[in-house]
Amino acid sequence: MSRFVRASKYRHVFGQAGKREYGYDNVKVSNSAWDTNLVSASARYISINWSASGGGAFAVLPLPSPFGQALRDVPSKLPDIIPLARTHTAPVLDTAWSPANDTLVASASEDGTCLFWKVPDALFEGWTSDGWEPRDLEPVARVDVSPRKVGQVLWHPTAANVLATASGDHCVRLWDLADPARPRATLTGHGDMIQSLTFNATGSIIATTCRDRKLRLFDARASGDPVRVTEGHGGIKGARVVWMGDGDRISTTGFSKMSDRQVVIWETGGLGSVKTLTLDQSAGVVMPFWSDNGILFLAGKGDGNIRYYEYESDMLYALAEHKTAEPQRGMCFLPRRALDVSECEIARAFKVTNSGVEPIAFIVPRKSDSFQSDIYPPAPSSEPSLTAAEFFAGRTAPVNLVNLENGAVFASDISSHAPPPATVAPTVVSMAPAPEPIVANPSPPVTPTVTKSASVPPITSSLGVSPAPVRSESLPADCQHISVPNEVTTTLREEVNRLNNELRDARQKIRNLELQVEGLRANARKVAQSLMEV
């Protein structure tokens, strides 16, 4: 055994659960069998899939804290009847808060729709007063995604008002909420139900896990088949995927053929496995959560513990476990920009049990009262880097960051996020070529429709977001306001559409080449390292 101990700032991180009165009790958690986290959090609120009659519903509650701050007028033990978001006609399967707006939440349901809700500040007034009557939330917009259920919903990390949905027709669709009549991209090629999806740091690539046991990478703006496919975990139970920060690594959790629970790290260049770690043989699905501190949190459904590992040089080093007697049904983590830095809190989890929500703070023990800059790297801010129009036009920008000491917002270094240029010639070593994608027969595309009613106003007015005008990239700015005949306008539009299609195809080819270059580089590094070890 080595006599040396690996240096780490997070070696002594411990989990601190709040007192019972600091969380929520009498929570009626949904009984749906769909594999979901059941809870989602913004910097101000949490949403919980709720068990309600007459359709689907979820609850919105103020953010609980393990340090005992007051929960506004909301009692710790919730009343039997509380305000709910209950417009869905079937159980709610997933919710997600907008990273650019802490009061905007999207919900996905078995009824095939995705609804959008804004939380008013007055929602929590008077909960403890006599004669209080709960008033349910009303959606501000609705998108009919698919005739089949919508299992996952995920916001884009850098572009405002861009949303991804995964539905029962085995498709991932990307939406511009300024024009929700049709999806801007439809990603096919899945052979079975999609189990999870994640964006990379810039939102240009999507990774998915599927019940057909395959891991796929997609160009987020190019409709069609995946650019990379590989065999994932061998077991038939649920698999999850999470992108590991702004690098080229993703992590998946799943089961082996022998029903061992596993966590695997993959390099995205050729989708090769670089590290496999066997956890145990429990039956619950493992939910992975990545922190920008370089820590991977693993929480198994039905477990009472939360494992956490520090990632360094393609290795996972076990730090500790937070153990409790009560098993968790679901979990989510707070955005890092909302952490309590005065308590040296580097992460906060919200654990959902059978009847409650418990906040858990992960703390680095420090004696100093000053800001600890070494354990608080800049966090993703609430300011988007792109508009939806810019993103779908092909622009890529790094996420805007916020300094947790003074709140200053700045753009991150684009060199750490940008993929390697396709023009750079890698060092080629004799090796087997990267595997070509194995694509299943795509399902026929479904044309979604948008339903609006008096209770569901248009999204542009209700969300308070004015869609940016989409300007033609093929015409100068000073020529777009000149009056021209209808025939000329039609011809120009057709030409613009043709050029845009050619540009989209060219970008897809460039990204494929970039992924191949990265795969060759990764293989070259492995060969060089093996030669040095000989």
What does this structure look like?
The protein has 534 residues and is mainly beta. Helix content is 11%, strand content 32%. Strands 1, 2, 26, 27 and 28 form a five-stranded antiparallel beta sheet that branches. It has a four-stranded antiparallel beta sheet with strand order 6-7-8-9, with no helix packed on it. Residues 414-484 have low confidence and may be disordered.
List the helices and strands and how they pair.
Blueprint lengths: L13 E4 L6 E2 L13 E3 L3 E6 L6 E6 L29 E6 L6 E6 L3 E6 L22 E4 L5 E6 L6 E6 L4 E5 L8 E3 L6 E6 L5 E6 L3 E6 L8 E4 L8 E4 L5 E7 L5 E7 L4 E9 L5 E6 L3 E6 L4 E8 L2 E9 L6 E4 L11 E8 L3 E8 L15 E2 L7 H5 L7 E3 L6 E3 L47 H4 L23 H48 L1
Antiparallel strand pairs: 1-28, 2-28, 3-4, 4-5, 6-7, 7-8, 8-9, 10-11, 11-12, 12-13, 14-15, 15-16, 16-17, 18-19, 19-20, 20-21, 22-23, 23-24, 24-25, 26-27, 27-28, 29-30, 30-31
Q: Point out poorly predicted stretches.
A: 414-484
Kindly state the mean pLDDT as a whole number?
84
Radius of gyration: 24 Å
Please indicate the percent range of residues in DSSP E strands (runs of 2 or more). 25-35%
- C-alpha end-to-end distance: 22 Å
**What's the helical proportion of residues?**
10-25%
What characteristic shape results from the CA principal axes?
A: globular
Number of helices: 3
Helix and strand content put the structural class at mainly beta
Work out the number of β strands.
31
The largest pleated sheet is described as: 5 strands, antiparallel
